[in-house]
Structure of UvrABC system protein C:
Amino acid sequence: MIHDPAEPPAAAAEPPANARPAAAAQDIDAATAALTLDEDDEPRLPEVEDEPDSSAAQPGAGPMAVGRSAIARAVRLAPTSPGVYRMLNAERDVLYVGKAKNVKKRLASYARPTGQVLRIARMIALTVEVEVISTTTETEALLLEANLIKQLRPRFNVQLRDDKSFPYILITGDHWAPQILKHRGAQSRPGRYFGPFASAGAVNRTITALQRAFLVRSCTDSFFESRTRPCLLYQIRRCAGPCTGEVDFPGYSELVREATDFLSGRSRAVKQLLAAEMEKASGELEFETAALYRDRLAALSAIQSQQGINPRTVEEADVFAIHQDGGYSCVEVFFFRTGQNWGNRAYFPRAEKTFTPEEVLGAFVAQFFDDKPPPKLILLSHEIEEAELLADALCVKAGHKVEITVPKRGEKKELVAHAQTNAREALGRKLADTATQARLLENLAATLGLPKVPQRIEVYDNSHIQGTNAVGAMIVAGPDGFIKNQYRKFNIRSEGLTPGDDYAMMREVLQRRFKRLVTPPAEGDAPAKPKDDDVPQWPDLVIIDGGRGQLNAAREALAGIGLTDQVTLLGVAKGPDRDAGRETLFLPDRDAIKLEPRDPVLYFIQRLRDEAHRFVIGSHRTLRKKDIREAGLQEIPGIGPTRKRALLLHFGTLKEIERASIADLGKVPGISAESARRIFEFFHARPG
């Protein structure tokens, strides 16, 4: 089936929302408090498929003949120009996405009766249809291929996994007192962006050190405008206090300029300037001022010591190095900007055992820059095919020259060797972690008497405050640990539900989850997003946070949709006084199980339950805050229009009222001690 060049590729499915618990710090803006809470998730190690029986791929076999016939039909209609082709199976799942300078010639190579490697032969045997999209140039084909692979996740392609947007540091340019903050997403706000950084942790540590070195504010504009006295960050010397005039405009502007210079690569000049100011203040016997400059210099040194390698001859580059072991691949990526090391991250792309390091690395780099701006220089550990074509494609994308090279000597060679060492060590750690997880799953199966080692465990919990903003959540774990892209939250919808009825909430959540699993999509429904082949969709074990009552409610819910014995259920009841280590485990139609407090299996179950609790509490708080913002202060008993106006005039925004302490609330005209306590408890009630 041949598609018109103007036909858009299949749309990417939206990733599931993953709410994070918000931080609150008294007298510190939430934007600052959040710096410690946004660490990147640990990537999973993908499953390596076992080699199938080669007899299935022998020339002349039935499936092979069908596959070659489908490809031959496509060859007759295929263009001789550049383009992208997709191999589809009988269920219309995309098996493979490829690109070619001459699509007709490339497809004809698949129709040859002999000479195919086993992986390609298996793909041909499963193919029943081929779709083609023509492009104007081979460069366009390369970019489209990378985009489609990331969207469709075909089984026979190398797949970039755990791909998140990278954080940047932004020094804003739309306020007279610029703010320093972490930024993800579109760079639409005026200001200077510095990055990418490898992880949120690297950004948070750098911002904290920059605050100590340059005293630039990190609070939001609304928090800044509402201050009548300096906040805690001023007291601990992490902000110059421009909000209340502790520093004048020229003085603060100079601090911002120094921070910008440091992030722009002029760190040596900035340190020399601070050292000279320290010497001057010391010579004039202004020892407190000299000590302040000393502390700022120490903060800058701390940034550079945390960065590790800072190259002398490489201004801007990304370094990619690959290591393979045991059928797995690890690609380590280092980011260098303005001559500084801005962190590294390990990736574990999914690729069959037959892919060489060069093939994996080439496919990885093309997909990596599909949604990221490439640097001027890309250093690789292995030579890849079509490096010049990829460089040309990235030039078109970035609007500047991009060089891709495998260095042979000098400092660049040392940077690649360092990245390759990190790739080898990261893969070793991941393999060890996977082995530990496998042993825990084996012990769990033995302890609970499961028929097989679970490959997918689902854990359910719910949260509410006196029945309001009720939300349920599911977390998923498997052989490689928590699988966060499979997490789901469920806003409780039942209108007739009694507030606080945990059993009814659990029944609703399980019915919605498993009805979706057992009900095939209706004709005309939007196609489901591509499934992750590494993660089974049906759970081997379902864990409920609760005792025998919750377990029975879960059994009733599953029985109502015809799943009486198809799902293994486990209830985990907290110990007396909610003590960890004294939990009781409940299985249907069996006596309760009490494990020894130091049993590794009990620790494992506790960790699963605690992760579910963390996720559902975060989801509940997000929902509740949205509800509060929409409803306003009228929901608080005893707070009418007059007091609401007084609170808003004093604090400026609803968010600041939420952060205020009881003592601060009591200072508002017209707010009594009892009203202050009621307002505080409304915002800080503990969810159930």
